[in-house]
Amino acid sequence: MADGTLTLTVKCDAIASDCVARHTVKVPRGTAVTVEDDNGSVRASGFDTPLKLRSDNGSVKVTDSAGALELDSGNGSVVAERVTGKNIVARSDNGSVRLEPAAVADRVEAVSDNGRVEVRLPAAGAPYAVDAKSDNGDVDVAVPTDDDSRHVVKAVSDNGKVVVRSAN
To answer: Which InterPro entries does the record match to this protein (predicted)?
Structure first.
């Protein structure tokens, strides 16, 4: 650990071998976490602080967390379930994005260049200002909408279906 940053690496010199590593990191409550991963999945659960998670080649999944979320995958799906942060942003260049907040957020943003985007919002609590579009795919919005709402939802896919509905 140096300057508040824990760096984990895997060195593999094998030519015809499959190098595999799995890291599990537990941090004290109240610790904001940033993860930048080159190859592999990133999972986080139970946080009440901001999370900034990125994987170049792998999925990103967050569950049961309450802080602001910035989630990103270059090649893989992005999922957030049972999250209650006020600001939830998720993006995948090549993969689906699925967000299921457990509480009404001020900002929910789900974007995929190539993949389905699905946002399942809490039914109770608010109408939403929804911006949903797809260049190549169907768009299905089935939540109460109000362009003046302070609860903003952006759901966009260049190539894939976009769904915004209640989580019933």
So the answer is: Toastrack_DUF4097 (IPR025164)
Does 115 reside within a domain? Answer: yes
Contacts of 149 (CB under 8 A, 6+ apart): 126, 127, 128, 129
DSSP letters along 112-135, please?
EEES-EEEEE-SSS--BEEEEEEE
Residue in the structure block whose two tokens are 């895997």: 10
Question: What's the start-to-end Cα distance of the chain, in Å?
Answer: 44
Assess if residue 72 is contained within a domain. yes
Closest Cα partner for 145 from 168, 124, 167, 126? 126
DSSP state of 145: B
Q: What are the DSSP calls for 19-33, one per residue?
A: ----------TT--E
Residue 93 domain-assigned (yes or no): yes
Q: Are 54 and 61 in contact (CB under 8 A)?
A: no
Q: Which domain holds residue 118?
A: 33-166
Q: How far is CA 62 from CA 1, 26, 69, 112, 143, in A?
A: 24, 15, 9, 17, 24
Q: pLDDT digits over 78-137, tens only?
A: 999 999 999 999 999 999 999 999 999 999 999 999 999 999 999 776 799 999 999 999
> Which H or E run includes 50?
none
- Split into its structural domains, the chain has a count of 1
